[in-house]
Amino acid sequence: MNRPEQLHQQLTAFLERFTHLADRYDGTIHYSSELETIIDEYSTFITDERNKEAWEQIEQPIANQLNQLVENVRKSSAICVAIMEKYRALKLLKGIDDKTDYFQNIESCIEEEFGSFQVTVDSKVLMVGSGSFPMTPLLIAKRTGAEVVGIDIDEEAIELGRSVVERLGSGLSIRLEKEFVERLDMTKDATHIIFSSTVANKYDLLEQLHPLTNDQVIVAMRYGNQMKSLFNYPMREVDQRKWRLIETILRPEHVFDIALYKKASAAC
Description:
Low-confidence stretches: none
Strand order of the largest sheet: 3-2-1-4-5-7-6
Largest sheet: 7 strands, mixed
Order of helices and strands: HHHHHEHEHEEHEEEH
Number of helices: 9
């Protein structure tokens, strides 16, 4: 079996398992261990140097044939990551200590999120796609004392996230809202904005944010290209008249990379 055929089989198997486990979510932690296992396996699969090298060697016509499968497995894995965050939140609220390899991978990179554009106690940070276990808002608020607002479109995620913050971050300046960026009072004052890598429309939201934000805002866009696009929505071109890419933070051992943007008027 050649490498493209093997990759196709592996992705198809992951997709079937993701779909099956997503369908089994019932608001309890009954199937959490199975999902955590596959997410950890998938994280290892994505960051394996041998797989990355094989991906880069696939010829374009074959890559085009894989496009639909890639889109499907990306969407399905994103759904499962959201569910796994719910499992982690539910376990915490039941007093069960739990940390998977995937969460360790995410948490180990948060300090380098903004490169040289550090968050301070005076910063106002907006997290788009905060999820049910808002690791980033908690770690930023704990380590810097900054004000952090997280938004998510999932009502259950917001409710669980608030309970997690109450348990782990009592007294910290963290607010979680089921709200759109254009209706959020904090948007115009945000000094730093973080987009989760699994937010499908993140570049559309970036475009929308241009007239809503101040000229000095720094945007950290989590993304994944090539092999990492199997787990994250990839980088896209931006309107150079509005936003400028000022830095990319590539992390081979992590499941996503980071692109930093400033407004074109401020980046010159």
